[in-house]
Amino acid sequence: MDDLRLSLRLLRAYTVAVDCGSITGAAEVLNVAPSAVASAIDRVEAEFGATLLVRARARGITATPAGRALAARIKPLIETYSDVMQQGYALNQGLRGTLHVGYYAPIAPAFLPHILQNLGDDSHDLNFNVQECDNITAQSGLLDGTLDVAIFAGDELLAGVDTRPLMDLPPYVLAPEGHELSTKSKLGLSDLHNVPLVLLDLPVAGAYVRRLLRAAGVTPRIAATCTSVEMVRSLVGAGAGVAVLNMRPRTEQSYGGDLVQALPLIDGEPLHLVTGRAAGSPRRLVQVFQDQLHEWFAGPEARALITR
To answer: Gene3D superfamilies this protein is in (predicted)?
Structure first.
């Protein structure tokens, strides 16, 4: 059974007629011809198989008890529809609601909070849901609507995701302060031969580092693997080995309190950091966030997060 055979336009014409007690009066309120109101009433009565309004030439129309009860049930539907439409129009008119952001960029805590806070400073009706995820999960979230926008690295893209490049991220070596590698005037991947390596073993990131080392002819001597950048930094700071990473936070101290240093590499292809969203026209909030994010990445603060 099709429960949507009566449009909201027909139902509204019916309720206005009940309130006005006149087809002509309802037509004036709705700015339509009286025949359109009469037709709407006929359609509603035919659908429910009942006489809902009594027409009297001299007295206009009078709702039956069933007709009044039905009108009372319809009015909240009309009001709810109006609220939904206003909220829908507001998507492109103001910064309000919840922005769902996914990120596969381990150093995102170094830049994302400030950008989100700047966005929220102008609106008390705005809040954020921020989720850490991997490359594919981030894109899947865009496609199924659980994420509005995502920041992720890598070239593996799903159909239906539109991306904009943020920055190329060259690799660097993270080492304990004073490590012997820091004495080299030019450090290359080949210098990591037989050096203990702490590997950030995440999708894309782990395969990326292994690919770099393989291309340089280096067989990694992996001392530890982990899935957290801060754990990598802490293990490096504690002396477990060195790591190959792409972005650095704003501090040279690990969670463990040890000092680490970023050493630029002269070789190795960069990772590509992008923003993505589902194809199609985004709501204004998503567009504004992406624009601010890209503006920030074009400035000096973003360049401070890479090592050259």
So the answer is: Periplasmic binding protein-like II (3.40.190.10), Winged helix-like DNA-binding domain superfamily/Winged helix DNA-binding domain (1.10.10.10)
pLDDT band at residue 67 under the 50/70/90 scheme: confident
Q: What are the tens digits of pLDDT across the range 177-229?
A: 999 999 998 999 999 999 999 999 988 899 999 999 999 999 889 999 999 99
| Residues 6+ positions from 14 with CB-CB distance below 8 Å | 40, 41, 44, 52, 70, 71, 74
Closest C-alpha among 135, 120, 130, 121 to residue 100? 130
State pLDDT tens for residues 270-296.
999 999 999 887 778 888 899 999 999
Alpha carbons 297 and 294: distance in angstroms, whole number: 5
CATH of 171-264, one of 2.50.20.10, 3.40.50.300, 3.40.190.10, 3.40.1060.10: 3.40.190.10
Nearest to 250, CA basis, from 105, 108, 150: 108
Provide the whole-model pTM: 0.69
What three-state secondary structure class fits 102?
strand
> Rounded mean pLDDT of 157-180?
93
Report residue 266 CA to chain centroid gap.
35
Which three-class secondary structure state does DSSP give residue 273? strand
